[in-house]
Amino acid sequence: MTRLISPFIFIAILLILFGCGRGKDTTDVTTQDRTDTTEVNEGPKMPSFTITGIDGSKVTSEQFEGKVLIIDFWATWCKPCVFSIPHLIDIKDEYEGDDFDVLGISLDRGPNAIEKVKEFASQLGINYTVAMGNQDVANAFGGIPAIPTMFLIDQDGNIVKKWVGFGPGTGEEISTEVEALLSSGS
Questions:
Q1: Fewest Cβ atoms nearer than 10 Å: which of 76, 115, 130, 159?
Q2: Residue 127 within any structural domain of the chain
Q3: Range(s) of the domain holding residue 97
Q4: H or E element that contains 53
Q5: pLDDT, tens only, 63-95
Protein backbone atom coordinates (compact mmCIF):
# COMPACT_ATOMS: atom_id res chain seq x y z
CA MET A 1 0.00 0.00 0.00
CA THR A 2 2.80 2.47 0.87
CA ARG A 3 4.48 1.76 -2.46
CA LEU A 4 1.32 2.92 -4.25
CA ILE A 5 0.96 6.05 -2.14
CA SER A 6 4.57 7.21 -2.66
CA PRO A 7 4.24 7.84 -6.44
CA PHE A 8 1.01 9.76 -5.83
CA ILE A 9 2.67 11.93 -3.19
CA PHE A 10 5.60 12.56 -5.53
CA ILE A 11 3.25 13.61 -8.36
CA ALA A 12 1.26 15.84 -5.99
CA ILE A 13 4.45 17.58 -4.85
CA LEU A 14 5.52 18.16 -8.48
CA LEU A 15 2.12 19.65 -9.32
CA ILE A 16 2.29 21.97 -6.32
CA LEU A 17 5.84 23.11 -7.14
CA PHE A 18 5.43 23.66 -10.86
CA GLY A 19 1.74 24.47 -11.28
CA CYS A 20 -0.94 22.76 -13.28
CA GLY A 21 -2.29 23.73 -16.68
CA ARG A 22 -6.05 23.67 -17.07
CA GLY A 23 -6.60 24.59 -20.69
CA LYS A 24 -5.82 27.09 -23.43
CA ASP A 25 -7.62 30.16 -22.06
CA THR A 26 -5.25 32.85 -20.77
CA THR A 27 -6.67 32.49 -17.29
CA ASP A 28 -5.68 28.86 -17.28
CA VAL A 29 -1.96 29.25 -17.89
CA THR A 30 0.35 27.48 -15.50
CA THR A 31 2.25 29.17 -12.73
CA GLN A 32 6.00 28.86 -12.55
CA ASP A 33 8.21 29.37 -9.50
CA ARG A 34 11.47 29.06 -11.39
CA THR A 35 12.60 31.41 -14.13
CA ASP A 36 13.29 30.84 -17.81
CA THR A 37 14.96 33.95 -19.20
CA THR A 38 15.06 34.79 -22.88
CA GLU A 39 17.35 37.53 -24.11
CA VAL A 40 16.02 39.03 -27.29
CA ASN A 41 18.67 40.48 -29.62
CA GLU A 42 17.22 43.27 -31.75
CA GLY A 43 13.90 42.31 -30.26
CA PRO A 44 10.53 42.88 -31.77
CA LYS A 45 8.65 46.06 -30.99
CA MET A 46 6.19 46.06 -28.12
CA PRO A 47 2.77 45.45 -29.66
CA SER A 48 0.21 48.23 -29.64
CA PHE A 49 -2.59 47.64 -27.14
CA THR A 50 -5.45 49.33 -25.34
CA ILE A 51 -6.77 47.76 -22.14
CA THR A 52 -8.72 48.93 -19.11
CA GLY A 53 -7.01 49.89 -15.86
CA ILE A 54 -8.52 48.68 -12.61
CA ASP A 55 -9.46 52.30 -11.93
CA GLY A 56 -11.52 52.34 -15.14
CA SER A 57 -8.98 54.38 -17.14
CA LYS A 58 -7.82 53.50 -20.62
CA VAL A 59 -4.26 52.11 -20.63
CA THR A 60 -2.41 52.17 -23.95
CA SER A 61 1.02 51.15 -25.12
CA GLU A 62 1.55 54.72 -26.36
CA GLN A 63 1.55 56.15 -22.83
CA PHE A 64 4.78 54.26 -22.10
CA GLU A 65 6.70 55.49 -25.17
CA GLY A 66 10.26 56.61 -24.43
CA LYS A 67 10.38 54.74 -21.11
CA VAL A 68 12.03 51.58 -19.91
CA LEU A 69 9.05 49.39 -19.04
CA ILE A 70 8.41 46.11 -17.28
CA ILE A 71 5.16 44.44 -18.30
CA ASP A 72 4.07 41.74 -15.86
CA PHE A 73 1.34 39.25 -16.84
CA TRP A 74 0.04 37.81 -13.57
CA ALA A 75 -3.03 36.72 -11.57
CA THR A 76 -4.12 36.98 -7.95
CA TRP A 77 -4.30 33.19 -7.56
CA CYS A 78 -0.71 32.64 -8.78
CA LYS A 79 1.72 32.14 -5.87
CA PRO A 80 4.91 32.97 -7.84
CA CYS A 81 3.14 36.12 -9.10
CA VAL A 82 2.35 37.16 -5.52
CA PHE A 83 6.00 36.56 -4.62
CA SER A 84 7.21 38.73 -7.53
CA ILE A 85 5.02 41.77 -6.81
CA PRO A 86 7.03 43.16 -3.84
CA HIS A 87 10.13 43.09 -6.07
CA LEU A 88 8.31 45.09 -8.75
CA ILE A 89 7.10 47.56 -6.11
CA ASP A 90 10.71 48.02 -4.92
CA ILE A 91 12.01 48.47 -8.48
CA LYS A 92 9.30 51.05 -9.19
CA ASP A 93 10.25 52.92 -5.98
CA GLU A 94 13.97 52.73 -6.77
CA TYR A 95 13.64 54.27 -10.23
CA GLU A 96 10.76 56.68 -9.50
CA GLY A 97 11.27 59.86 -11.49
CA ASP A 98 13.46 58.15 -14.10
CA ASP A 99 12.05 57.28 -17.49
CA PHE A 100 10.84 53.97 -16.09
CA ASP A 101 7.50 52.35 -15.39
CA VAL A 102 5.84 49.05 -14.54
CA LEU A 103 2.56 47.77 -15.95
CA GLY A 104 0.83 44.82 -14.31
CA ILE A 105 -1.62 43.04 -16.60
CA SER A 106 -3.92 40.79 -14.61
CA LEU A 107 -5.22 37.64 -16.25
CA ASP A 108 -7.88 37.11 -13.58
CA ARG A 109 -11.33 36.29 -14.97
CA GLY A 110 -14.83 36.03 -13.63
CA PRO A 111 -17.74 38.27 -12.76
CA ASN A 112 -15.90 40.02 -9.89
CA ALA A 113 -12.39 39.96 -11.34
CA ILE A 114 -11.85 43.74 -11.38
CA GLU A 115 -13.01 44.13 -7.77
CA LYS A 116 -10.84 41.21 -6.69
CA VAL A 117 -7.77 42.66 -8.43
CA LYS A 118 -8.45 46.16 -7.00
CA GLU A 119 -8.65 44.77 -3.46
CA PHE A 120 -5.55 42.64 -4.01
CA ALA A 121 -3.56 45.61 -5.40
CA SER A 122 -4.63 47.73 -2.44
CA GLN A 123 -3.66 45.07 0.11
CA LEU A 124 -0.20 44.63 -1.43
CA GLY A 125 0.34 48.37 -1.89
CA ILE A 126 0.99 48.10 -5.61
CA ASN A 127 2.43 51.45 -6.75
CA TYR A 128 2.25 50.95 -10.50
CA THR A 129 -0.48 50.78 -13.13
CA VAL A 130 -2.57 47.61 -13.06
CA ALA A 131 -4.92 46.74 -15.90
CA MET A 132 -7.10 43.82 -16.89
CA GLY A 133 -5.70 41.68 -19.69
CA ASN A 134 -7.48 39.62 -22.29
CA GLN A 135 -6.71 36.97 -24.88
CA ASP A 136 -5.96 39.59 -27.56
CA VAL A 137 -3.24 41.35 -25.56
CA ALA A 138 -1.75 38.01 -24.46
CA ASN A 139 -1.64 36.86 -28.09
CA ALA A 140 -0.10 40.18 -29.18
CA PHE A 141 2.85 39.36 -26.92
CA GLY A 142 3.22 35.91 -28.49
CA GLY A 143 1.08 34.10 -25.95
CA ILE A 144 1.67 33.69 -22.24
CA PRO A 145 2.86 30.12 -21.54
CA ALA A 146 2.99 30.49 -17.75
CA ILE A 147 2.63 33.24 -15.20
CA PRO A 148 4.21 35.37 -14.17
CA THR A 149 5.59 36.31 -17.57
CA MET A 150 7.47 39.60 -17.65
CA PHE A 151 8.77 41.59 -20.57
CA LEU A 152 11.46 44.26 -20.42
CA ILE A 153 10.93 47.00 -22.98
CA ASP A 154 13.64 49.56 -23.81
CA GLN A 155 13.19 53.28 -24.46
CA ASP A 156 12.74 52.60 -28.18
CA GLY A 157 9.86 50.19 -27.57
CA ASN A 158 11.87 47.02 -28.26
CA ILE A 159 11.28 43.86 -26.24
CA VAL A 160 14.77 43.10 -24.95
CA LYS A 161 14.12 40.40 -22.36
CA LYS A 162 11.40 37.98 -21.33
CA TRP A 163 11.15 36.14 -18.02
CA VAL A 164 8.76 33.21 -17.63
CA GLY A 165 8.26 32.38 -13.96
CA PHE A 166 9.86 33.95 -10.93
CA GLY A 167 12.50 32.19 -8.89
CA PRO A 168 15.41 33.02 -6.61
CA GLY A 169 17.47 35.88 -8.01
CA THR A 170 14.92 36.99 -10.61
CA GLY A 171 14.11 40.25 -8.82
CA GLU A 172 17.79 41.19 -8.66
CA GLU A 173 18.29 40.26 -12.31
CA ILE A 174 15.36 42.45 -13.37
CA SER A 175 16.68 45.38 -11.33
CA THR A 176 20.15 45.02 -12.89
CA GLU A 177 18.68 44.92 -16.41
CA VAL A 178 16.53 48.01 -15.76
CA GLU A 179 19.51 49.92 -14.37
CA ALA A 180 21.64 48.97 -17.38
CA LEU A 181 18.98 50.22 -19.81
CA LEU A 182 18.49 53.47 -17.90
CA SER A 183 22.26 54.04 -17.74
CA SER A 184 22.77 53.38 -21.44
CA GLY A 185 19.92 55.59 -22.53
CA SER A 186 18.59 52.72 -24.68
A1: 115
A2: yes
A3: 23-184
A4: strand 50-53
A5: 999 999 999 999 999 999 999 999 999 999 999
Give yes or no for a contact between 176 and 43, defined as CB atoms under 8 angstroms apart.
Answer: no
Checking if the pLDDT of 4 tops 80, the result is no
Taking the chain, what is the end-to-end CA distance rounded to the nearest angstrom? 61
Nearest-angstrom CA–CA distance, 49 and 123 = 27
The tens digit of pLDDT for each residue in 111-120 reads 999 999 999 9
In a domain, 4, yes or no: no
* Rounded Cα–Cα distance for residues 66 and 52 (Å): 21
Indicate the pLDDT class of residue 186, thresholds 50, 70 and 90. low
Residue 151 has pLDDT above 50, yes or no: yes
Number of domains observed in the structure of the chain: 1
Provide the sign of the torsion angle of the four alpha carbons 127, 171, 173, 81, taken in this order.
Answer: negative
In a domain, 11, yes or no: no
Give pLDDT, residue 61.
97
- Distances in Å between the alpha carbon of 167 and those of 121, 144, 148, 163, 179? 21, 17, 10, 10, 20
CB 103 within 8 A of CB 64: yes
**Residue 39's CATH number:** 3.40.30.10
